[in-house]
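Let us work through a complete example step by step.
Step 1: write down the sequence.
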Amino acid sequence: MSYHTIQRLYAVLGAALSALAPALHAETIAAEAWSAHAQATYIWQDKPSFSAAYSGPKSLDSAAEKGYSFSATAALGARLWRGAELYADGEVVQGKALSGLTGLAGMSNGEQQKTSSANPTFYRARLFLRQSVGFGGEQEAQESDAHQLAGMVDKNRLVVTFGNLAVTDIFDNSALAHDARSQFMNWSLLAHGAYDFAADARGYSWGGAIEYYTEDWALRAGRFLQPAESNGLALDSRILRHYGDQIEIEHAHQLGGLPGKLRLLAFRNHAVMGGFRDALAAAPADGAAPPELSAVRKPASKRGFGIGAEQKVAADLGLFARASRNDGATEAYAFTEIERSISAGAALQGQRWQRPADSVGLAVVRNGLSGAHRDYLAAGGVGAFIGDGRLRYRPETIVEAYYSAGVGARAWLTFDAQRISNPAYNADRGPVSVASVRLHAQY
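Step 2: predict the structure and record it as tokens.
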């Protein structure tokens, strides 16, 4: 074969590759230098009256109630240098919680903060830096979103995040049950129910995490500040003494050509916490006064774990499941009063009925307590959210269903129903029904 013939072959091959280039790189997107996103969410809730043999200091009100929450967020992002991204969120919230946010372990509104009031409250929600270091090889596209700049990233990479953010921005990040603004609303479905992750009363903390991605695997570890007191707003800056540690391993896979993920998470908290057995031992032997956690607080550790799975079973249908447990020896410090939890559910997109922006979801949750916590409540003790003065223990069971309808290009109207049996683990109260209407818009 002559030199000129080889040249012609190379020219033909080059032209063919050039023609194919758009198809070969269809998923390649340009790097975004900066981004601005916003969201607003309003949730209205109605709870009719329900049967209750008795009520206590932290009981869900057995009379009919209405509540609401409103949040609005402005999220800004900027690319500083190669692999470095800076994000800042400003947020405003307002609301009225059912029963003052007491009487349930699985609260019915995941947007309802522990500091909610009828007056609008403005604050900084996030301010963090993310540095990614790619190791070359195959790349994947990332779409523009809040806390994510559009662009290509190496599949094999190291990511370091530091600053003010939510621990669940990084850990236990389920695609189907994670966001009360667009998915299920119950607290038990936002994360592992028994995952007492470090957070202030608004759900945010300061700290850092490191993530390593390689092929289908991801490994994450992080340490974050605990609140200065149980479920408080102020954070304890002594991160070497009081902290929330977590480690998570994740594996992405394909079943029948459809994507899925498995996650295993372990956590350890260290803070000044009250122990249930200590409170019972310190209470008057004659039962003249109930046990009090505040009287026996001391440096202590809490350990727990969670297993999660999600799987597409059709292009428009996904399933998820979680199971979690913590040692149950000390009070709930930053999340809610759950020490054992199992949940499962499904979410279906609306393509089948020509409404691709719509979705429908169904989930069931079963929450439980440790033996020490049960004895504490039965003796008249109260926690941050629950305490009926006495207790006929049964696991708290929640069924939630929603229909989310697209309204225009960037808004959704959702109708949600929850049925909660044994509220606050008490078979002498309930069941309780909660109906919700949510309007969510995002840009």
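Step 3: interpret the result. The chain has a mean pLDDT of 93.
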